[in-house]
Design goal:
Elements: H1 2-15, E1 65-93, E2 109-141, E3 147-157, E4 160-170, E5 180-182, E6 186-196, H2 198-202, H3 207-215
Parallel strand pairs: 1-5
Antiparallel strand pairs: 1-2, 2-3, 3-4, 4-6
Length: 218
């Protein structure tokens, strides 16, 4: 019995894990060594780690950082209205037979009517606003010079932990002089805001309820 309770607590503890992500992996990268630079020789000036005084400070190598200005605002709405009316009328009557059997059907009169009506309406609206600043890391440099960036920010408040993740492809020409790029100028952008903790778990349907909801035919 003790083993069962221990296994239960391990499973429930495992439910509070880092939420899955769809951003490009990895979410950070160490700078690649520059093989064209000489090794350290003990002097104060090291050519391998130095940058000219008047060099452009915008990111261009793996391991460099770029600040992303998140300015996402999405508004979408749709509305539909369907209406269908259909009616049928059928009339049949037998007035007489001449030289044929079945005279018992004389005077038979049949009237049939059917009507179908369908009316359906649907409306959906979505409005999302996401703003903020976050610094990401260059994890790859494309052959054409574009930068693949990815990054994550974790903020823990009490028992709740917030995750902000961004990844995408940045054209260096869109990066300003302060090494900042807007999220609207990132290609294949993947921006996430997720949380992990008691509050986020309280908003989810329990797994057993989801199971019965999937198998019930009504």
């Amino acid at each position: 019995m003790k083993f069962i309770f221990s296994l239960f607590f391990l499973l429930t503890a495992g439910c509070s894990t880092v939420p899955p992500t769809n951003v490009h992996q990895p979410m950070t990268a160490r700078p690649s060594p520059r093989f064209d630079m000489p090794n350290a020789n003990g002097a104060i000036y090291q050519a391998a780690s130095s940058r000219p005084l008047f060099e452009d400070r915008r990111a261009r190598y793996v391991g460099d950082t770029i600040t992303v200005k998140i300015t996402e605002s999405t508004t979408a709405s749709t509305k539909s209205n369907n209406k269908l009316d259909k009616s049928n009328t059928a009339t049949a009557s037998v007035t007489g037979f001449s030289g044929l059997p079945g005279k018992g059907l004389l005077g038979l009169d049949l009237n049939a009517k059917s009507a179908n009506a369908f009316s359906g309406k649907g409306e959906a609206a979505n409005n999302n606003i996401f703003t903020g600043n976050m610094t990401v890391t260059v994890i790859d440099v494309m052959p054409n010079g574009n930068l693949l960036v990815s990054g994550e920010k974790q903020v823990a408040i009490g028992a709740e932990q917030e995750f902000v993740r961004i990844s995408g492809i940045v054209n260096p020409s869109f990066v300003d002089a302060f090494n900042i790029v807007e999220s609207s100028k990132i290609a294949d952008a993947r921006i996430e805001y997720k949380s992990s903790g008691q509050i986020s778990e309280g908003n989810l349907m329990p797994w057993l309820a989801r199971f019965f909801l999937n198998v019930m035919p009504f």
